[in-house]
Specification:
This protein is α/β, with parallel strands linked by helices. Helix content is 37%, strand content 17%. Strands 4-10-9-8-7-5-6 form a seven-stranded mixed beta sheet, with helices on both faces. Strands 25-24-23-26-27-28 form a six-stranded parallel beta sheet, with helices on one face. The structure holds pyridoxal-5'-phosphate (PLP).
């Protein structure tokens, strides 16, 4: 949506490079006659040439008078008064005041899902509470009825009718996604309003002035309102201009004396309004819009039939039409799943249609999976065909490989030179969680582990070449943390069950290093705050979000409890190594053990676990550049349990070891440089791995992935690629720990900070046992 345009001609917009786009959004319907319509330009030129005054309040405007007269003449029913305004929302505000002023009644009804604008009064009428989030409280005296349900309205009015001043309705709910009510709905609403003395206010701000193939959409139903609201197209695509038309019996002279708006009734704007009405009422433009609309809808229906995996439904009337997309489902790859949960799928598709087909379509504000196709009424048949051919071609690409075409179209592969910025490049809207049985009680934060990880969780991006991949990761790293997906329900042996959400930070360890600890740390804070806004009690930190949050310390106290998952990770890695040693008849007492990355939380816990078993020797290997003091302190503490503990910064120390547990945060295969003896058991807990494919391919070593847990239910998957590319029902222990704590309802910080007690490991292993979480079968994936 970051395109800018330098020219507008009819249905076409032109950007600075000269690229032409067919405008099938028409600024939410504000462009009935297209950009820079000749009759609009003529009206303005004539006004300027004649030095006509635009602003003459409090006196009468010549063209304002004429436009008011013409509007009430053209409007259905017996509307007699006109209040000019500068926007749709202001028109709604005027109507709210009028219906209350005249009736003395307070209550105003509108429909669920309706849209009437975003000023505070208009928001109170609007039936989409998400727009009022955080700006309340809204004014009292507003109620809702279901849209399209005349029986519900009848029941509501039977009870409350005497208190109701007005019913506000859109003949078709445009912003919600072009929702057309049943055929007799408006007529019954009319009859009910008349019966109860209630004003029927029809908001035709989007549907009016030819959009649906009649001058006003209510004319299709033969219904006349008491108040009719118009705006958008009235200003000819040039001026902000609206009008609230009112029947005599709902007019109030008190209102007329007290209401004003400085810029309303701009005389030049009103001259344009007259030209618009002239264009709409002579030459058959409305009739043509109806004809073109029928052709448009027929083609959309045909597209839906040909691409059922892309299009869920189509609907509309005249040149107000919508395509309801199939949002990416549970089987979708990570990127589209993220886009969908951030409510951006329709935006991504609209961006794709723009880039691939040079056609601009409009995401619906109120439905994250709907795009509107609503070109200017004057669009030529050829251009309409061209737009539909473009949509057709994009649907074909979406059906084939939606992720690939979207990623290529939204500029995700152009991100080569993006600088490490202090803040993410975009702000994401609040996420949309698909409804499930139970609300999520935990969140788990993940990030990209390495470039191969992408193949597992986003198979549709396998075709990216290495340069494209690099650019994709650059792009993803610029996005704020968001919701990746909902988790499957995990059921414990005890019968308890929990649901969660997976949050994602689109960063590789390399990108984290590039962006720096402050920026990454802030992103992790944002993720935890997002989790808090979703109402979860606990956030599990995955992968490098542990070191980048100072082992969780940087994000405690923000609402949800925090776990690093380190306790169970260390416990399960230890258990996996022990099992393998047993298989080999290798007693731990006899074993020479090395812990690589012993300074880290998991490494430290592993060192403690092994020391407790008093191995023959234990060597703590640490990064020579940091941590010497910590390692020495750890050595001294462990030496109380077991004699032969040493510290080394040299991988040569691994030469004589039987068991090597590796848990560095090096983000590179450090074990490549180690002289591992034949027969060594290597437990690799690090992600990215410490053992490269080359080390894993050695047949004289046994290399297993440590820290993996088998969940109680077989076949359980956390989406495409099962989150970490692991077999179904196997998960990393840090996620398993998060789930266990959620199952127990233990909303406390666990494994946070440097010193994690061994008792915590024992507690986690006991919880795992109680809930049926077992050590996973060893994974010896040489191919990694
Ligand atoms: C039906 C309806 N009413 C009111 C409005 C608000 O108009 P504005 O954005 O000019 O305030 C809109 C805008 O989309 C609308 O579609």
């Amino acid at each position: 949506m970051s395109r800018t345009f330098v020219r507008g001609e009819g249905a076409w917009l032109v950007d600075a490079t000269g690229r032409r786009f067919l405008d099938c959004g028409a600024q939410y319907g504000a462009l009935a006659l297209g950009h820079n319509a000749p009759c609009v330009q003529q009206a303005v030129r004539a006004a300027l040439d004649a030095a006509e005054p635009a602003m003459v309040q409090p006196y009468r405007g010549l063209h304002a008078d004429a436009l008011a007269r013409r509007l009430v003449e053209l409007a259905p029913g017996h509307l007699t008064h006109c209040v000019f305004t500068n926007s749709g929302a202001e028109t709604v505000e005027a109507a709210i005041k009028l219906v209350r002023a005249r009736s003395g009644r307070e209550l105003i009804l509108s429909a669920h899902g309706s849209f009437h604008g975003k000023t505070t009064g208009a928001l109170a009428v609007t039936g989409q509470p998400q727009y009022a989030a955080g700006v309340g409280p809204l004014a009292p005296g507003f109620g809702r009825v279901p849209f399209g349900d005349a029986d519900a309205l009848e029941a509501c009015l039977a009870h409350d009718g005497a208190r109701v001043a007005a019913l506000f309705l859109e003949p078709i709910q445009g912003e919600r996604g072009v929702i057309v009510p049943p055929p007799d709905y408006l007529a019954r609403a009319r009859e009910l309003c008349t019966r109860h003395g209630i004003a029927l206010v029809l908001d035709e701000i989007q549907t009016g002035l030819g959009r649906t193939g009649a001058l006003f959409a209510c004319e299709h139903e033969g219904v006349a309102p008491d108040l009719l609201l118009i705006a958008k197209a009235l200003g000819g695509g040039l001026f902000p201009l609206g009008a609230c038309l009112v029947a005599d019996e709902f007019w109030d002279s008190g209102f007329a004396l007290r209401h004003s708006s400085t810029f309303a009734n701009n005389n030049v704007a009103c001259r344009v309004g007259l030209a618009v009405l002239e264009a709409l009422t002579t030459g058959g433009l409305c009739r043509e819009a109806a004809r073109k609309g029928e052709a448009l809808l027929a083609r959309l229906v045909e597209l839906a039939a040909r691409y059922p995996e892309v299009i869920a439904a189509t609907r509309g009337r005249g040149l107000l039409t919508a395509i309801e997309l199939h949002p990416p489902g549970d089987e979708a790859g990570a990127f589209l799943s993220f886009v969908r949960h951030q409510g951006l799928y329709a935006y991504a598709v609209a961006a794709t249609v723009a880039e691939r087909a040079s056609v601009l379509v409009l995401p619906a504000l109120g439905d994250a999976s709907v795009i509107r196709v609503m070109p200017p009424l004057m669009i030529g048949d050829d251009d309409l065909e061209r737009a539909l051919d473009g949509l057709d071609a994009v649907c074909a690409r979406l059906a084939e490989n939606a992720t690939d075409v979207i990623v290529r179209s939204i500029g995700a592969l152009d991100a080569e030179g993006v600088a490490a910025e202090a803040e993410p490049a975009v702000v994401l809207p609040p996420p949309i969680l698909p409804a499930r049985g139970t609300a999520p009680s935990y969140a788990f934060l993940v990030h990209y582990i390495d470039t191969e990880h992408l193949d597992a969780i986003d198979p549709e991006l396998r075709g990216l070449d290495p340069a494209e991949r690099a650019r994709f990761f650059r792009f993803a790293a610029q996005l704020p943390a968001g919701v990746l997906r909902r988790t499957p329900t995990v059921r414990s042996l005890t019968g308890a069950s929990v649901d969660g959400v997976i949050l994602a930070l689109g960063m590789l360890p390399d990108e984290m290093a590039r962006l720096g600890a402050r920026r990454v740390g802030r992103e992790i804070e944002r993720a935890v705050d997002l989790a808090a806004s979703l109402g979860v009690g606990l956030v599990g930190l995955g992968g490098y979000t542990v070191p980048y949050s100072r082992r969780g310390l940087g994000v405690t106290g923000r609402g949800p409890a925090i776990t690093t998952g380190n306790a169970l990770t260390a416990g399960m890695a230890f258990a996996a190594t022990l099992r393998l040693a047993k298989d080999r008849d290798l007693a731990l007492r006899e074993a020479r053990v090395a812990i690589v990355g012993a300074r880290g939380s998991v490494g430290t816990l592993c060192a403690r676990l092994f020391a407790r078993e008093r191995p023959r020797s234990l060597v703590l290997v640490g990064n020579p550049e940091s941590g010497g003091v910590h390692l020495e302190r750890l050595r001294q503490a462990l030496a109380r349990d077991t004699g032969a503990v040493s510290v080394s910064s040299d991988l040569a120390a691994l030469a004589g070891c039987d068991i090597v547990v590796s848990a560095t945060a090096a983000a590179r295969p450090v074990l490549d440089e180690a002289p591992l003896a034949s027969g060594t058991i290597v437990c690799d807990i690090a992600r990215p791995y410490d053992a490269s494919p080359r080390v894993r391919a050695r047949t004289d070593l046994t290399v297993i992935d440590g820290g993996l847990v088998a969940l109680p239910e077989p076949g359980l998957s956390f989406g495409t690629g099962n989150l970490m590319g692991l077999p179904a029902s196997v998960q990393v222990a840090c996620l398993a720990e998060t789930i266990l704590l959620a199952l127990e309802g233990e909303w406390r910080d666990v494994g946070v900070g440097r010193d994690v007690e061994l008792a915590e490991v024992d507690h986690m292993l006991a919880l795992a046992d109680r809930h049926g979480f077992r050590l996973a079968e060893p994974i010896r994936a040489a191919a990694r």
